[in-house]
UniProtKB/TrEMBL annotation:
<dbReference type="InterPro" id="IPR001638">
    <property type="entry name" value="Solute-binding_3/MltF_N"/>
</dbReference>
<feature type="signal peptide">
    <location>
        <begin position="1"/>
        <end position="23"/>
    </location>
</feature>
<feature type="domain" description="Solute-binding protein family 3/N-terminal">
    <location>
        <begin position="40"/>
        <end position="276"/>
    </location>
</feature>
<keyword id="KW-0732">Signal</keyword>
<protein>
    <submittedName>
        <fullName>Transporter substrate-binding domain-containing protein</fullName>
    </submittedName>
</protein>
Amino acid sequence: MKKLLIQSSLLSIFLFQAFISVAQYSGDTFAKAKQSKKANLTYVYSEAPGFAAEVNGQVEGVCVDVMSDFEFYLLDNYGITVNSTMVKDHADNFTAYLDAVKKSSNGVFGLSNTTITQKRKSIYKFSPAYITNIGMMLTHSDVPTLSDISKISEVFAGKKAVSVKGTTNEDQILNIKKKYFPSLEIEYVNSFEEVMDKVISSPDYFGNVDFTYYLDATKSNKPVKRHPAGDQAAEEFGIVMPKNSDWAKPFAEFLTEEYRTSPSYRKIIAKHLGPNALQLLDAVAGGN
């Protein structure tokens, strides 16, 4: 009998863990919210400086302010009052954050520096792009400047790349390894904060990160160097949703080009990313 009880308990624990791993988070559907005029939404975030980061116990950033504007849009245009919950369980693990959103349902939104790709669009739903990003190759400031990407195996000889699995930044590193640096070793970490820690602490590493990490590092006078020869082509970030979400339609109505060029949106960018970010984004938009 005791053995059966133990086996039963173990089975219950296993089934509970399996349930938790599959059914992560949920929120109200847009269809339900239109009827009830209320929406309980869940925001899952992963730490990304300027986009979604915990400051004095509160999550702040571009994504948070964009969601706040979306909430006002829903109230003004649909009469829907939003009650939102911020989930911090996956703040330090970008891969786990994406997995959590994928396994969630309905009114769940992922807030981070999440690149919109064709592969991800087959797994998730996305808002329209809320910002254009440039992936930058960074090293410690003591490292000689890489002026030609095809020479990277010579200039960066003996160095390791550091990256986060399942990201477009990793794709860039893998592309460099395939084309120019077959012997390159790649060390994986859970977050881009860890990538920056490695790069800043030692000239033996290099990484590909989003431009905001570079701006944040230079603003803090950290020993970092950008290598423009290794910059990644412009890409776009979006708010990510579970595949079964019906919130993509109202989000597309809200997050238009008119919104992205509005004074209020530019104020959000300047507030969280700094005036240099506005200049960089304007240059990207102008093709310079």
